[in-house]
Write a structure and sequence with these properties.
2 copies of one chain form a homodimer.
Chain A (H helix, E strand, L loop, with lengths): L1 E2 L10 H13 L9 H21 L6 E4 L2 H15 L6 E5 L4 H12 L3 E5 L9 H7 L4 E7 L11 H7 L5 E4 L15 E5 L10 E5 L25 H39 L3 E4 L9 E6 L4 H10 L2 E2 L15 H6 L6 E5 L6 H19 L10 H5 E5 L7 H9 L8 E6 L4 H12 L2 E7 L9 E6 L3
Parallel strand pairs in A: 1-11, 3-4, 3-5, 5-6, 6-7, 13-14
Antiparallel strand pairs in A: 2-8, 7-8, 9-10, 10-12, 14-16, 15-16
Helix pairs in contact in A: 1-7, 2-7, 3-4, 5-6, 7-10, 8-10
């Protein structure tokens, strides 16, 4: 079984397993107690808090451990709006937040709060100026995810924080903590250990010093009065240990996973007819990609992929048991049916990804077969050959173009990706000389690259 | 180190450790997912729920797993009063509930609810009729612990439930689940796995079918909408496995622990001057005993006992870091200073208890030494020799009395415990014949026995 659903929960990191068992031996006692085993548990808890604080760029006393990411979001949001009650009762969040944010906002609205949801573009991306425009003098709190849990789009957190001025910003960083650096600008930050390879049962709520916070729950002296109940030291120790481990692995794994996801992003439209890859091609999580297949029931597709040995997810990550259309995809205005989210774990084998790409076309075709549709060939096959000449100096980009244009049928398109300025002149010139049609220049970002341009050529003959 | 603080947290049961590691292998995936590993996690979760339901005498769909006992209490209380809002906004609880109950009641009062605390007797025991007298037509909820967490007194839950009629009763069973059968009569029941040898991070909230419940938290589809956040399947599996295991051991261990606690209850007043053993001597948890030492700072005493190798607790179990006087002891009207709570784990060695009794007198004397007090001999030494003749047929009780009365000084008292009706006539008769003073008959319960009478004799010569 290839597990491609790390955005739901990551397999327990070996370091977490080790730390958990060690802490069950050494840190099982009540950290509030004054005897030796209690003091030992307290020391382990303090050390874990320092580790997490360091990774998040926070002070240890700004960190409270909660029972889950959802609880961190609920407490963070309700505590922050309660702390700012005198300022007003208005809440702003993006339209593509996790359901825990939306549900907490609904509860707030039911109790008299006013809520604005900021629209996103077709890639699920928030625009800082649009977000700022939704903020009012009576806005108590703004909420924005660091990256979207369904489509992987990385949000402009720092820009939004700057644009909204003094309004506290709660950043739901569940999908990025451990993988990407924490963006600056947050006033409150939430995360969930089981998303980064820690155990279940540990969330993080960070509240910057100076941010007004009034607990929405009955009094409890644990975790600075922010998270109630007995403190789960062994799980917290394991969470911190695995956070440190994944941060150390992140750079290497991220570029590897980024390339594997790029392969999926590129290949799926070439292999499967009537499919749409969604989410921002450039500002994206390294390990996550989502696509939607027209004419396909998502639940059936997931079942068939499961039989083929692939665990993937579909639709809104927290409503999959009901399989209602994802509010994220709906807000983006993209296809919501036949939705598949692939999120790759650290250490995934390249061959597993290739096997997925090999199996996917027949699985989708099998699900579609009873419909008796006559589908066109995959859109990408009709469209564009991408020649990646990034980093190559002229005349290499033009030489590649000349060598490979024969791979597309007449009428087909070639995109030459290049970051050499000379290509801007050379490609049109080559077209004129050889009687091919120059179609113009686009950002290479549209092809998932972070620099350079794409020069489009239609093969005429 | 002898760990005598199982009422704070029990060491992880070996079965729990084993089940935890197995479930980390087999049940780590998201139980809301439809692929194989998700379905497997769901099956393990369902099985754990059935186990817990069976032990609690509930239906599986009445059980929700929370993140802690405190969270179970908070959600249970707030959800139940919200569900009964139309009936009224009045809450009744005993004066000796856990701080999580008191804090939730405070929050309820701050938001417009009215709260009545029912007094207890000197043993910390609630009287069913007094509890019922506090209930009014607008009472939304009554809350009563199954057994007190500080002094071990077992409350008359079933009698209270019957006395208050249709008012829902929330029973905080944190200290008794796994050890004693669950009392009947509850409408809501809360518990905490780490108290019975399960892992931290698992609480239980049981809500009887038909009891109105409105979640006080934002919507979340997990755990019947009652407990938010990702479900911690491995910890829940471990909690259920250890619950089953401790229930199977309970009968044997309970009678052993009951006898060891009885030894502490009897010996401490004989060994330490100016000490008061508190809590009901008969209606009590098998493993827990609390005593208070006059002229002693509790924190200092705990520190000295820690140095001597004993981990014990003091005062209110959830405010020990502040060491404010325990609200439980205050409500009982007993001494609150120099308080020590001993709660014995399953499997504790008898020799550890004896070592505690050997060490305690000098530790207390050492703490008191700087005060320069001239303390009388231990009260018990001046008072009563207990002859346990329970189960012995006449004339054995009188023979024991004749043989042992010389052990007390003239003026001292002997209590003959007997369940043979003949003793009621024989002991006074023997006194008249031998010129000793017969003082009368008391319930053997006053000496911690569950049957028989105590016949008191003062040695005259």
């Amino acid at each position: 079984m290839s597990y491609f659903d790390v955005a739901s929960t990551a397999p327990l990191h070996p370091v977490a397993r080790q730390a958990l068992n060690a802490a069950l031996d050494e840190g099982w006692a009540d950290p509030a107690r004054l005897y030796r085993s209690g003091r030992q548990a307290r020391m382990l808890l303090d050390a874990a808090r320092e580790t997490v604080a360091e990774v998040l760029g926070a002070r240890p006393d700004e960190i409270s451990f909660t029972a889950s990411g959802t609880q961190a979001v609920q407490l963070g949001m309700l505590g922050a709006v309660a702390g700012r009650r005198r300022t007003g009762r208005h809440l702003v969040h993006s339209a593509v937040e996790h359901s825990s944010v939306l549900h907490t906002a609904e509860r707030y609205a039911a109790e008299g709060g006013e809520v604005s949801a900021v629209a996103v573009d077709r890639h699920g991306l928030v625009a800082a100026e649009e977000f700022a425009a939704a903020v009012r003098p009576d806005t108590a709190l703004a909420v924005l995810q660091s990256a979207n849990h369904e489509v992987g789009t990385v949000q402009p957190v720092t820009e939004v924080a700057a644009a909204i001025g003094g309004v506290p910003l709660l950043v739901d960083a569940a999908q990025s903590v451990g993988r990407l650096p924490v963006p600056s600008g947050w006033s409150l930050l939430t995360a969930s250990a089981h998303k980064w390879g820690g155990p279940a049962g540990v969330g993080v709520l960070a509240v910057r010093k100076g941010v007004r916070y009034v607990s929405p729950l009955p009094a409890d002296e644990r975790e600075s009065g922010r998270a109630p109940g007995y403190v789960n030291v062994p799980a917290i120790v394991a969470a911190a240990a695995s956070l440190r481990a994944v941060r150390a692995e992140a750079e290497r794994e991220n570029s590897r996973l980024h390339a594997l996801v790029e392969r999926i992003r590129t290949q799926v439209p070439r292999l499967v007819p009537e499919v749409e890859v969604v989410g921002d091609p450039v500002r994206r999580l390294p390990h996550l990609v989502t696509f939607s297949c027209l004419y396909v029931d998502g639940e059936v597709l997931l079942g068939e992929l499961d039989k083929a040995g692939f665990a993937v997810s579909s639709g809104s990550s927290c409503t999959s048991s009901t399989l209602t259309p994802s509010h994220v995809l709906a807000a983006m205005g993209v296809l919501t049916e036949g939705n598949v989210r692939v999120s790759l774990p650290y250490g995934v084998a390249e061959s597993d990804v290739d096997r997925f790409l090999a199996v996917l076309p027949e699985v989708v075709a099998g699900v579609r077969a009873p419909l008796g549709l006559d589908l066109a060939a995959p859109a990408a096959a009709r469209e564009t050959l991408v020649i990646d000449a990034l980093g190559k100096r002229c005349p290499l980009p033009v030489i590649e173009l000349a060598k490979r244009i024969g791979e597309v049928e007449p009428g087909g398109t070639v995109a030459v990706l290049s970051d050499d300025e000379a290509a801007r002149l050379d490609v049109p010139a080559w077209c004129e000389m050889r009687g091919q049609e120059y179609l113009g220049e686009r950002a290479a970002a549209e092809y998932g690259r972070d620099r350079g341009s794409a020069y489009l050529v239609r093969r005429v003959g």
